[in-house]
Amino acid sequence: MLVGGQGTRLRPLTMSAPKPMLPVAGVPVTAHMLARARDAGIARVVLATSYRAEVFEEYFGDGSAHGLELEYVTETEPLGTGGAIRNVVERLRGGPDDPVVIFNGDILSGLDIPALVRRHSEADAAVTLHLTEVVDPRAFGVVPTDADGRVTAFLEKTPDPPTNLINAGCYVFRRSVIDMIPAGRPVSVERETFPGLLAAGTPVMGYPDSTYWLDLGTPAAFVQGSRDLVTGRMASSALPGPVGDCLVLPGAAVAADAKIGGGATVGAGARVGAGAAVDGAVLFDGAVVEAGATVRDSVIGRGAVIGAGVLLDGVVIGDGAIIERDNELRAGARVFPGAVLAAGAVRFSSDRT
Ligand code: GTP
């Protein structure tokens, strides 16, 4: 499981925690992914860490509390997706032809993992990729396949893509193919390893699957993923509560007349004041939403304080930031950790930080 990226698109949330450790629906993204792996019969996972490596082992330990055997391999410099896979090769067990399942650590997906592995084995492929269909593939690299499901190309972003299928960030590698990735330098599987395999005529298979899939890389997707877990649109055995309209974690205090809904999460020790509305938003642990404030489709960092009457819609507030009363932020605005916005100081929207 690759969990070493910088998560630049989720800044400033990823300034204090790596993306795979940010809580969606109450627990880290990685906890949901590990639960899916375990539920699929995977017993042992190696976490390839780099950025903020130490926090993974602090949280997950040897994995026994999660029903898994976990190991950690930390890169001294970030090696990219392919380099990270190569870097854990010593820890992989099994023979040269055995399948190794690789997960990008920021994906929520209902993929049938055993079916992906079966497909790989039946086709005797070098690599088998989970592919997912998106409505508008122009912003992605697309992965066309032939009638037998064999991948014919890896096409970078193009205005006129020949297919809606994109790389969904979960792969099965034949173990010996990992040995062939160059060691000790950054390698991208998407840009180097996969195109190289195709050029050499090695069989690379696609496994299209139309179950739930979401890349949690952007703030909007992060909020969406959390909502989908809370409301049960995406099932996860790691969800720390029943499926419903909202998830309120132990130790949170919510005023009786506050409105929490739309799949919102209220973190441990967070507080929501009288008459406040939290709609589809994610409040990290210890966040405070004061009386009459409205927080919609936003992420509120740990211990951040949202003042009375504030309106937030589609924004990211860093850990410990203070938004005093009567501010209004919308549509992509981001506030750095620890920043203070004085009362009534801003009414702004669209991607300002
Ligand atoms: P952005 O900077 O916002 O693009 O996010 P990211 O750093 O996570 O990059 P991206 O989403 O492309 O990464 C896909 C997956 O690979 C994520 O799970 C990352 O954690 C992981 N990843 C990316 N680069 C590295 C790396 O150098 N080492 C390791 N171990 N994992 C990586």
CATH architecture of the largest domain, by name, is: Alpha-Beta Complex
Distance between the termini: 31 Å
Uncertain spans = none
Q: Give me the number of helical elements.
A: 7
Order of strands side by side in the largest beta sheet? 11-14-17-20-23-26
Level-1 CATH class name of the largest domain: Alpha Beta
Give the overall average pLDDT.
94
Draw up the topology in text.
Blueprint: E1 23-24, E2 27-28, H1 29-39, E3 44-49, H2 54-60, E4 69-74, H3 80-87, E5 99-103, E6 107-109, H4 113-123, E7 127-133, E8 165-174, H5 175-179, H6 189-199, E9 204-208, E10 213-215, H7 219-231, E11 246-248, E12 253-254, E13 259-261, E14 264-266, E15 271-272, E16 277-279, E17 282-283, E18 288-289, E19 294-296, E20 299-300, E21 305-306, E22 311-313, E23 316-317, E24 322-323, E25 328-330, E26 334-335, E27 340-341, E28 347-349
Parallel strand pairs: 3-4, 7-9, 11-14, 12-15, 13-16, 14-17, 15-18, 16-19, 17-20, 18-21, 19-22, 20-23, 21-24, 22-25, 23-26, 24-27, 25-28
Antiparallel strand pairs: 1-2, 5-8, 6-10, 7-8
Helix pairs in contact: 3-6
The structure holds guanosine-5'-triphosphate.
Guanosine-5'-triphosphate (GTP) binds at residues 2-9, 19-20, 48-50, 75, 78-81, 84, 104-106, 217.
